[in-house]
Structures are given as structure tokens and as C-alpha cells.
């Protein structure tokens, strides 16, 4: 009797789960497999084209140094943006979690993470308005400083970094804040009453306990930044060629989909590899 | 250095961060009310760009398409996501951890990779680009958010309430609709608002999946920016960002992300 009950339960669970998971299967996991398949083809297998299996797309990556150079450029961009976001965001999360009290904390926290849920394209565009030559930043600096600086950051790597930090900063603030909020204040009190100095408390108590939040935030920033293409296009102009923009070109301009698939898969491998490298640190931090 | 001094320093720092986060958005919004076509200062108030926007059929069509796509995505993702959350919560499913891990790829893999993979797949099976593909892609991206938010709300649900209802003779469907769903309703509303925001703000996946000339608003803005910008883009961007922030403020009232209840 109980066996048949478990059976109906299993059917109910299956009925409730299958819409969501079949959808994910059809829209995410099958496409990723299709992309893996495409990366080994010489041409697209529709529209009556001739195609066969080949390793040429991966060979192209190895034989054309530009791809590796651009991939490294994108990884470097990811590291710089991640490092800056952590350095700027962690103190902000600390102030929110441990200094500000009461109702104003909730409101301030909401204000900090609200931009994260607004359109990223529009926020990048807003930086284009601020940074362009004769733009608001240039005019303001000219008005304040007595000499002529002609500040024009638009279409420079600096502009791309500023825009990306602005886009992804709320991630690390959010994850660090959650980790910091979980630290019991009495632990800090105990350390202080035992004579620990501020720097010791920060280094030996707060940073180790908040590490899972910081690392989670860093990973959440690094992964999308390595694959970014819209931000470099808008803020970098002609100097905004990165690995992501090359992949974009394969799909919307050059129409070499198999090469684009191979380049995407190499990016996925790099991202997963870096996550695997970081995972001992993540595991140690979360234990 | 006294504690009070440090606390004041901290608040100033927080203020600077908020300035950094909001100043460009406010500047962009201000420029949408500036008369000069070339963003020239001094500022002269004008609603010309909004009037032009109102007469721009291309933008209005794309805006309307973005809104109804987001509504369809919200309904589908919220229904499927809520059902999955209830199953994950109620039943002891073998491989539950794997099912939970499977939610991460749509969030964690760069959208560039997911979007191009979807493009390849939809062309491979003969569906191609277009609004149906965009909807399928958006739902997949929104599902994990709905499941995470609804599951968080379910964790505050007292299981014994379901048992009590069942022992009083209610069937599983009645229990779900009359006991479980009313309790988790704030979570469902928050999940739905997240799903709407994910779809309405989505650029990358729409960019690869939508038909040229038949696009969503963010894709249209991207194309326009690359041709050179006009204050009209500021005007529509200001409306978008105001709308999505308003939605998230409402969602925050229900979800209380990060806050303790």
C-alpha cells in the first residue's frame, strides 16, 4: 500500500518538476550540446551546404595568435574589474552591515543594489553620455580646474573598466553584505575586549569569515566580464576589440558559426577552468 | 581615531558609492530634458525628445513588443518555477542536489555563450530567429530566479499545516491551492517581478535571437547607439530605467532580498 502511495507521489513530483526542467533542457542544455557539435563542423549543416567533421576551428585558435592575445586581454579585463569591484565594494558592504543601523540600513541597502536590477545596456549608455568629449564629466572638470585639461575618457580602456565596475559592483556588495551580516557582533566584541587591535580583528576575524561572500561575488563578476562584448563596443569604440566582440562578429557579421562555436567553447573551458582553480578556495571558505 | 569618526567616514564613503552608482543615470535622465541635440550645456529645459519619442513608431513597436514578451515570459516562468519549487520542497526526490545544481548554468554561464548556443540550436531544429525563440530563451533565464525566490519563501512554510489540511480530508490539489500557495504568495509575486525584470532588461539573448527589424527595445537601443546617439535614446532609456527600478522596488517589498524577516 505504501509503495503505491510513493508511486503516486513520484508521479506528482514528476508532473510538477517536468515543465521547468524540460524547458531548461530544451533552451539551455541541448543548445550547449548543439554548440559543441557545431564547433567540429566545417560549415553549417543546413541551407544545403557541404560539411564534414573537422578540427580546423580549434586549429584556427591555436594557429592565429590574435585569438589567444584577445582571450588574454579579456581575462585581464576580468581580473582588473573583479579586483577593483572587490576593493571598492567590500568596505561599502562593511559599512552597511556593521556601521549603519536600523531602518536606514534597509533603505540604503536597497538603494545600493537597485541599479543591479535595471537595464545594463542603459547604464553603459549613461556612461557614454558622461564620458564623451565635451560631455558632462569633461565640462565639470574644465569648470572646476583653472587650466584646460580636455578630459576625454571615451573610447579608452579606462572607460570600459569604469562602465563594467559600475555594472557589476552591486554583486560583490550584495554577497559580502550577506556574509558580513552573518558574523555575530559579540565575536567582534570578544576579540576587542581581549585586546585585539582593529587591524588584527579585520585580518584574523572579519576577512576569513566574510571570505565566502567575497569569493562568490568575485566569481559572479569575473565570469560575465570575460564574456562581455556590448560594454567594450559602446565604451571602447574601435579600441574595444575583445574576445567577446570577436565571438559576436562570428555570429552577426562574418557568419562563421562553427568558428564562433569553437571560440565560445574555448571561453567556456577557460571560465570553468578558472572556477575549478578557485574551487579549493571556495570550499575552504565555505566550510 | 575614535569610533564615531570612523563611522562618519564610513557613511561618507557610502555616499560616494551611491553617487558613483546614480550620478551617470541621473545625468543621462537630465540630458533627455535638455533642448540641445548635441548634449550641449548650459541646460535648457525641453520635452521635445519625449514628444519625438511618442511619434517614433519603430521605438513604440519595439517597446510594446518588449512589454508583452515580458508578460508572457513572466506567466510561463512563474507557473513552471513555482511548480518545481513546490515539488523540490515537498517531495524527497532522488538526485535533488543535481536538480538544484542544474539551475546555475543559465545564471552562471556568460550570456554570450548561452545566447549564441541558443541561436545555433534554434536554427538547427528549423525554428530560427524570431519572437518565439526570444520567449523560449527568456523563460529559461528567468526560471532559476523564480525557483530561488519561491524556494526561499517556502523555507519559512510550516509543513505541519499541509499535514493538518490533509488529515482533515483535503486532497493534494486542494492542499496546494488553499494552504501552500496562499502562504508563499509574496514569494510568487516577487519571483514574477524578477522574471519580468529579467526579460524586460535582457539584451544579449534577445540580440542573438530576435529577427532584425523585429526586435525588442534594448536591441533597438544598442543598434541606435552604435549609429550615434541622440537625446531620443536618453528619453527612452530614462523611461526604461525608471520603470525597471519601480518594479524592483515593489519586488523588494515582497522578497526582502538579504533582509531578515
Automatic annotation (TrEMBL), chain A:
Tell me what topology the record assigns in the membrane.
Multi-pass membrane protein
Keywords on record = Cell membrane, Membrane, Transmembrane, Transmembrane helix, Transport
List each copy of the ABC transmembrane type-1 domain by range.
71-278
Q: Which PROSITE patterns match?
A: ABC_TM1
Q: Which SUPFAM superfamilies match?
A: MetI-like (SSF161098)
Q: Provide a GO biological process annotation.
A: transmembrane transport
Q: Fetch the InterPro entries from UniProt.
A: MetI-like, MetI-like_sf
Family from the record: Belongs to the binding-protein-dependent transport system permease family. CysTW subfamily.
**Under what name is this protein listed?**
ABC transporter permease
